[in-house]
Amino acid sequence: MPARDDGAPPSPFDGLSRWARILGQVVAPTTLATALLFYFGWAHLYWFFNYFGIDATVLGPSTTDYLMRSVDALFIPLIVIAAVCLAVMWGHTALPDRWRSWPRTRRQTGALVGIGILLLLNGLSRLVVITVFNRGLCVAPMSVIVGILLIWYVIVLRRRRRWERDPTAPRRSEAANIAEWAVMFVLIAMSLFWIATDYSVAVGQTRARQLAAEMPVQPGVVLFSEKDLQLSSSEIRTTECSNSLGAESAYRFRYDGLILLIEIGGHYVLLPRTWRRGADTAIVIPQDDVGTLRFEFASSAGYRPPPAC
């Protein structure tokens, strides 16, 4: 059914409020936000541990672990997106009328539409092939978003000019407006999701590289264990402990040359201080099933443990 003609020019946001209500009835906003935070935290954790050669799924991170990591993954994207949206809204209002009515000629309109189509195709092409134009971080989803907005902007101007020529012409139906916003929402929302995912992966890997670079100055860990953990790496020194009377100690084995990467999901993740990617392995020790463990932390990178326990 055509929208009511009340003498006002057609709004570019006709159908948006109706679409938002429909979406809110289908998906609970809180549930959706929690699921997205969980996913971005998962991407961050997975690629963080992947850098050290660990499959994060074996660590059993909790929901809290994922949600806390999502803050690191989404902090900058949310700020950037919010700042860009404000800049667009305020900037458009501040522009002179002659600039806001651009493009004026068919050639300018065609150029704007052509740029939008090229950007849209460049972004979508990343789904099937990687090229020099869509390879960069977040380049493909940003191309999709900018391309869609450019084409939509031209369409809004054309609809307004058509109304100025004939204000009595029938307006588009509410169903058509809702369908248009639904398609735009899917494309833009999935592109934003794509951006956040790429950024989460990049942040996870960046944090891992930073930690690996700082390992020489990280506090060292001396691990005492009730049982032999069979840590046979050449960088790890193993000492069998006994007390001064020759009897066995409560902690029979000591391991030096380690740093504690993280404790997560009931596991300790340790690395040799001289760990090198692709050459050394990470050590995952469950908190249970290995007997009693004791950690001693040395704050100085130059710490040298005593020769005996």
What oligomerization state is this entry in? single chain
**What sequence of helices (H) and strands (E) makes up the elements?**
HHHHHHHEEEEEE
* Mean pLDDT figure: 82
Count of discrete alpha- or pi-helical segments spanning 4 or more residues: 7
Q: What is the beta-strand fraction?
A: 5-15%
Low-confidence stretches: none
β-strand number? 6
Q: What structural class do you assign from the helix and strand content?
A: alpha+beta
Q: In total, how many domains does the architecture comprise?
A: 2
Q: What general form does the structure show? A: elongated
Helical percentage: 40-55%
Q: Between the first and last Cα atoms, what is the distance in angstroms? A: 85 Å
| Major beta-sheet overview | 6 strands, antiparallel
Rg from C-alpha positions? 29 Å
Notable traits:
single chain, 309 residues, alpha+beta, 2 domains, 7 helices, 51% helix, elongated
Plain-language structure description:
- The chain has helices spanning 16-26, 29-51, 63-94, 97-100, 106-125, 139-165, 174-214, and strands at 220-225, 237-242, 248-264, 267-272, 283-286, 293-298.
- The chain is of the alpha+beta class and 309 residues long.
- The protein folds into two domains: 16-213, no CATH class; 218-298, no CATH class.
- Strands 1, 2, 3, 4, 5 and 6 form a six-stranded antiparallel β-sheet that branches.
